[in-house]
Design a protein that fits this description.
The protein has one domain: Hypothetical protein TT1679 (Rossmann fold). The protein is α+β, with helices and mostly antiparallel strands and 205 residues long. Helix 1 runs parallel beside helix 3 and helix 3 packs across helix 5. It contains six helices and nine strands, in the order H-E-H-H-E-E-H-E-H-E-E-E-E-E-H. A hairpin with an 8-residue loop joins strand 2 and strand 3. Strands 1, 2, 3, 4, 5, 6, 7, 8 and 9 form a nine-stranded mixed sheet that branches.
Length: 205
């Protein structure tokens, strides 16, 4: 692994977050989730060649984009830790998340989660959460931590290193069937109200 390779990872990660933020309409105060296999970034099988330097590079680059924007980051650990997540204690308290007792390490949690824990100001591990969007580096599968309804995003960045990159955003479920409306038009409402009042006044005359 070379410095050039790590520098390329930095640029790819930053670009991917910027693309997702633009596509998903992410704003300050929102919570995003990251799943990351450092092994896959290196072109190896997930869980087989964990790299602390790669994990650290990904998390540091992610925070350099998100922190100045006031966007919160949750980092998913691997299945050894039941896909629990690293967050700041302030995030856990804000969203009333269930804390679990474990500290991620490279071979039980993964390098990205380990780096996220190390780089956080006051880290805790939580059992689950509901982010509005996220990035998945290396097919770690983050859907369980993204708000229903999840919508795949085809952002321009397709890979981080050798790892396949997926992006998700979310939207509100649409309910009510074919007669339902999904936006409020005040002028239509006022017209309908005026018509209804006219009919009622006529009936009561």
């Amino acid at each position: 692994m070379t410095t050039k390779f790590l520098n390329e990872i930095v640029e790819e990660v930053k670009m991917a977050w910027q693309e997702l933020i633009a596509e998903a309409g992410v704003k300050s105060g929102d919570l995003l989730v990251l799943g990351c296999s450092s092994s896959e970034i290196l072109g190896e099988c997930i869980g087989k060649s964990s790299s602390l330097s790669v994990g650290h590079t990904v998390i540091k680059a992610s925070r350099e984009v998100l922190d100045p924007l006031g966007i919160e980051l949750a980092v998913q650990a691997c299945e050894h830790l039941n896909r629990s997540l690293v967050v700041e204690r302030s995030v856990a308290e804000k969203y009333a998340l269930e804390e679990v007792s474990v500290v991620p390490v490279a071979n039980a949690g993964g390098s990205a989660a380990t780096a996220a824990y190390a780089l956080a100001d006051d880290p805790v591990m939580v059992s689950g959460l509901t982010a509005i969007a996220g990035l998945d580096i290396g097919d770690t599968f983050i859907g369980m931590h993204v708000k229903f309804v999840q919508v795949p995003q085809r952002i321009p960045t397709k890979k981080i290193g050798e790892a396949h990159l997926s992006a998700l955003k979310s939207r509100l479920p649409r309910i009510g069937g074919e007669r339902a409306k999904y936006s409020f038009d005040r002028s239509v409402y006022e017209e309908e109200l005026a018509h209804a009042l006219k009919i009622e006044n006529g009936e009561n005359a």
